[in-house]
Every structure is written in structure tokens, then in C-alpha cells.
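Proteins fold reproducibly. Consider a sample protein:
=====
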Amino acid sequence: MAQFDIHRNTGQQRDSIPFVVTVQSSLYDDYRRRVVVPLARKALLGSITDPGFNPTFSVDGIEVVLHPLEIVSIPASQLGARVGSLREAGDQIIHAIDQLLSRVA
């Protein structure tokens, strides 16, 4: 599993969050868990007020939005099938996570 790989969501919210993207560094591939960010269906979210924090992507013909506020660690065994990669959008994804974690006064 590579950083920015997209996997099908196998959890209970898979209708509204069909995919997750792995964001953890490959330095931690030996761990049994993966840090992922949900890719939520854009149609269910309404307007996006900050596209830098919530960039939009198309995955398997579905418009999805990165949802950093729902970042989570899950067992690697619970990841669904790999369906693609957002490697080319890695800087956008890291920027969104940086925005989530930065110290803003």
C-alpha cells in the first residue's frame, strides 16, 4: 500500500463515503494500521467553502471531496480494494492536512 492510494470503503458509511485515501508515510508500512482520510460524495456535502481544505476529485466516475476532519486510523486488513491513486494530488492532500493541524491564532 502506497501513500495516496485510494481504497474502497468497506465500513458502514460506504454509501456516503465510498472511498478513503491512505495518507501515512511509507516509513510506517510495517504497522498493521493505516491512517486514511475519507473521500465523501460531493453531492451529499453541498457547497464547498474552502476548496484548499476540501479538494474535489473524480474516482470511478464519482465526484468525491477530501474530508480531513474525519481522518482516522484503521486496521490495514479493513481496507477495501485499491481503485487508484491520488499521488499526483499529494501536495493538495498534504496542504489540507497541514491546514487542519496548523496553529492559527
In short: The chain has a mean pLDDT of 94. The first helix runs from residue 42 to 45. The two ends are 36 Å apart (CA to CA). The chain has two helices and seven strands.
